[in-house]
Amino acid sequence: MRTSRRSIRTTALGASFVLLVLATGGATAGVSVASTAAPAGLGCQESVSTPVPQPTQEMLDTAGLGDLPLAPDSARRDLVAAPFSDSTAVTNPLFPIAELKSAILNGHVDGKVFHTETTLLPFQRVIEWTPGQCVRVLVSQYMAFLDGRLQETALDLYAQADDGSVWYLGEAVNDYGTDGQILTTEGTWQAGIDGPFAMIMPSDPQVGDVNRAENLPGNSFEEVHVTKVDQTFEGPSGPVSGGIVALEIHQDAAPSDKLFAPGYGEFQSVDGPDIEAMALASPTDSLPGGVPPELTAISNGADAIFASHLATPLQWKRADRTAQRMLDAWQAFHAAGDVPPRLVKPTRVALRSLIEQVASRRRSNSYSASIDAAYASNDLQLRYRPVTEVDTMRFDLWARRALVDATRASLGDTRSDVVTLEWIRDRIAQTLDPVTVVRLDTLVGELGGAVFDGDLGAAAQAARDLREVTSGLV
What's the rounded mean pLDDT across residues 256-267? Predict the structure, then answer.
């Protein structure tokens, strides 16, 4: 399962530049070029079918992988890469990254609530994975939250070869503590710098096929054995046919099953008692007709509670009634059916918690609960609204959370909020006018600077100023 075995280094793959590696004889040299254009004069040749370098048995043994039940070369589908003439058209139905704009997965890890957001970012990169062979890649952002706090981020690089297979060209990852501090960057890699790229999905997987989704012993290693095809899984919008089941063999965990489904890609991962499964994807699960009024009622109610001073008996009484109306709206929406199953419990829990916190008259907890309720409604709205609108609302909700955490003098939580805002910013910046982007960046910078200085009063003011901007965007 991704969260149990990955961590990253974001600085290796900055959003504005690509690192082009010219590797010969194990030596590497890099030069940064604009990510919007293919490099010129740096040895990039017409893409051709190319053998993929493989680790030796000695390398596997040194990394402690020598005793793993690895497949013989005769079963491998990933020893040669086909040409990449249209590499960013990643449309393989079992890994359709170019078409899958956003996905929510959830579950539990270490007995705690687990939530992930995967988003296709609006820029591409060029990677020279072996001398002369340059591949333009898509960049997918992954964010994982454990118990409501940012736990991991990743930038994943993907490309599709002309035979329909999908290849993984690197990842940049950060693992965070609950206080927003980076704990480790272990596991980051990039093809051409750290080793070969790896096939993450064959073109037409069959039982017995094997590929290595990561192939760097001592850093990241994962061999995938296809065990079942033509499977039907229960998805967010009903049964999904044509799925596959694969057994993953890892360097640092017991073998585990992963499910892949058409229109979704990675569909479910199980690692012992931990599970991460698809909750909702856009556009796969998108529906016409606009946001249902019940979801709008939940969002508007959360806004009203957050905007209230919650200082007088009348304000608390109004908040009681508002929270109950939000729960009533959810129950009506749920009763009407067609709710993605994996989003039912998170929404119900968030709304009942809001009612309890308001009833207890705990102001800070009530504000936090209103944010959770709004977030749950916003996740459901991914089915009806453009991805960038949903992400803009997420940005605003994390600005609200930063204000709450700074006001209650929680330095670590506020730091975590700032980091989360910085990542979500990259999903929405291209939709905003340049002046607004500068305003957001300036205020997030002020918020981060205040946190760095330990000045939570200044952090709260920066969060208020940030909200003045974000509230006009949603």
Answer: 96
Residue 10 confidence (pLDDT)? 29
**Cα–Cα dist 391/368, whole Å:** 19
Alpha helix (H) residue ranges in 308-410: 313-335, 344-360, 363-381, 387-407
Nearest to residue 467, comparing CAs of 409, 402, 378, 417? Answer: 402
Tokens (6 digits) for 342: 């994996």
- What is the DSSP code (8-state) at residue 343? G
- What backbone phi and psi angles, to 5 degrees, belong to 250? -110, 165
The values of phi and psi at residue 37, to 5°, are -140, 150
What is the CA angle 141-81-168, rounded to 5? 15
pTM of the model: 0.89
**How far apart (Å, rounded) are the C-alpha atoms in residues 318 and 305?**
9
Cα separation, 387 vs 341, in Å, equals 20
On the question of a cis peptide bond just before residue 273, with omega within 30 degrees of 0, the verdict is no
pLDDT surpassing 90 at residue 22? no
Q: Confirm if 356 and 370 have CB atoms less than 8 A apart.
A: no
The residue behind tokens 């459901």 is 380
Give me the percent of the chain exceeding a pLDDT of 70: 91
Q: Region 378-382: what's the mean pLDDT?
A: 98
Distance of CA 106 to the CA centre of its chain: 11
CB-based contact 269:1 (threshold 8 Å): yes
pLDDT at position 150 over 80: yes
**In this predicted structure, what is the pLDDT of residue 15?**
30
Residue 55: phi, psi to the nearest 5? -65, 150
Under DSSP, the state recorded for 1 is: -
pLDDT (average), residues 150-158:
97
Q: What is the pLDDT of residue 17?
A: 24
Number of H helices, E strands in the chain: 10, 18
Closest among 339, 417, 389 to 101, alpha carbons compared:
389
Hunting for tokens 């040669």 — which residue is that?
80
